[in-house]
Each structure stands twice: as C-alpha cells, then as structure tokens.
Amino acid sequence: MKLSCTKENLNQGLAITSHVSARNVNLPILNNVLLRADAGGLKLISTNLEIAITCTVRGKLEQQGEYTVPSKLFYDFVNLLPNERVDIDLHDDGLSVKCGSAKTKIKGISPSEFPLVPPVVGKLKYIVPVHLLRGALSRVLFATATNESRPELTGVIFSFNGGGEDKGLILAATDSYRLAEVYEKISVEGTEQKVIIPQRTLTELSRMFGVFKDDVEAPKDVIIELADNQVVFRYGSVELISRTIEGNYPDYRQIIPNTSKTEIIIERTVLSQAIKSASLFSKLGLFDIDVKINPTDKTIELSAADSGRGENKITLEAEVSGDENEIIMNYRYLLDGLNAMPTEKVKIKIIDAASPCVIVPAEEMPNEKYQYIVMPIRQ
C-alpha cells in the first residue's frame, strides 16, 4: 500500500471514524482503524460490531493494499502534523507516515483479523435535509433512557409518514420520566414506516455532521436506508451502518395531555436562570423544584428547600392565563427541555400536580413542531 493525501482530508476522515473504535480487551483489532487503498481512494473503516463507519478520503494512489493501525494513536498523530501532503507507505515492519519533516512508523495488526463489514442495501430509502435532522436529533437524544432494562427506550423512534396531517418525519424519545417529540415536514412517499435507532448510533451521526459543519462542499442531504434489522446513513463520502433495536416502542401519544388548566408564556433564558438558582437548594437525589402559578398577579414562583442547606424562592413575571396551579418537577428534566427549545419564549401547559406538564415553543415554527413532556414528582 502506497499513497499520498492532504493532512486536512486524512484528519477529517479520522475525526469521523476514530470515535467508533472502543477499547476491547478480548478483540484488540476493534481498537484499530482499517486503511484500505484502492482505485476509489483511501477508505477508513472502523467498527465496534454494532456500528460500522466507512469514510473515503481523496488521495493519489500508487499501490493498492490494506492495513490496520490503532485508531486513537493514528488520529492524535495526524492531528499534530503540519498542513502539508501526507505520504503513507506500508512496509513489513509497520506503516510509514511522512509529512514535511515528520517521519514515523506505526505498528499495527494484520487486516485479515478485522471484522468483515458487508455492504447493506436498504429496501426503503428516504432523503432528509441535514440541517433538519441535525436539529431534530439535538432536541430528542437527551431524553433516551440509559437503563438497558427496556432496550427499546435506549433509542429514538423514527416514524416516516407518507400521508395524512403529519406527512413527514417524526422523532421521539422517552425514558418514561420525560418525552421529547419533534416533527419535520419533509417529502416522504409510501406507507408509514417505524424504526428504533440506538442512541449511540445517532450520537455518532450528529457528531459526524459537526465535523462537516464548516465544509462548504458538504452535501445538503443525508440518505437513510432501512434494511432488515439495520439502518444505513449515507452522507457524501461517509457511510454509517448500524443495527436497529427490535421490539415495540410504547404508545407515548396516550400520555400527552390534550387540554390544560393553566398556561404560561415566559422568556426561556429568564426561566432557566431562575431554575438553576432555585435548584441549588433542592433535595439531593430528588432534584425537586416547586412551581406555583398565580394568574391574578401574572407571576410564577419557583422554590426549593433542603433541611441541610436552606431554602430559596424566586418570583418571575410572565404571561399567565387559566387557573391558579402548583406542580413539583425534576429541575434537571426542566432545564434539558428548555435548552432544547428553538425559540426565545416558551409556553408551559399545566393541568394539575399529578398530570404531565407540556412545554412547547411559544411561536409557531415553519415546517416543524416540537413538544417536551415532563412527568411531575408526586408528593
């Protein structure tokens, strides 16, 4: 194997593939990235047996071949090279890398031990604008469950709807304590299709979009292909293959309230600052914060008290309509939802102390809907 490429292109490819490789004592080869040089360029392939990422880097090929080197070591080394041409040459005793005055030899493992990553051809294909998918992921990923006792909740459910009022793509995630749902109006053909994609896969996808964020040549769309128990994301020179999560996602729509007795419209940053202040005095492990709404005074009062640390009470002015109300919620869940809101003002809908609280953007957004539901802490 012998080829040349730019440091910028190689570094970008390794930034995408190096994070998938996980430390594995039983299978050391999974710590490595596979370098495969052929007529199509230099392919960088990494996998953890659940996710596989292939990134093609443009380069000048002199001799075909393949080899695996430690993923993190190679990425850290290339990251420190000057912005010049990188010459890669495979010898019997390792991989030779030259760039400017820097010369090194990296020991690796034979590519014959690297797991086979078979090509996946999806039966269904959807095209989604990258900016929409990236924004949608940032608003739902944090709500996935971390506990493996219910595997389906550790992923995000994608619903592709080809007809009806909700024609487009819906993403939803819940850990049974809170729920985030975003709707994107995009062109979708055919009948409704649902698939649960692991949170780790989507985190890698979101990070990949971040790597290409400032690249003017980056594609505007990502192609999503669904196959049997697998999903493929194709984005320019990158292909991400992942298993999907089997099982039935809970019918979360039934817990979303259709009515409310009290509604509040308030500046998102003002409310977040007040919650952070009150949270310093919430009970450890319970993370509770008491919210009292007074429609007469047009105020909401946030309070928290802990026998060992003291108490805190903050009153904020807001647009309040409906009945006087009170609810106790987990402040961390509240802050997560507020941080994900795409508008400066938010609308909070409350029924009573025992019913879920709904938070939505105060202003209508074109071609997009978002709602965040938090279960109350019952006393």
UniProtKB/TrEMBL annotation:
UniProt cross-references to SUPFAM superfamilies, sorted A to Z: DNA clamp
GO biological process: DNA strand elongation involved in DNA replication
Ranges in a coiled coil: none
Keyword Transcription regulation on entry: no
GO cellular component terms attached to this protein's record: cytoplasm; DNA polymerase III complex
Domain called DNA polymerase III beta sliding clamp central: residue spans: 129-251
Chief place where the protein resides: cytoplasm
Entry protein name: Beta sliding clamp
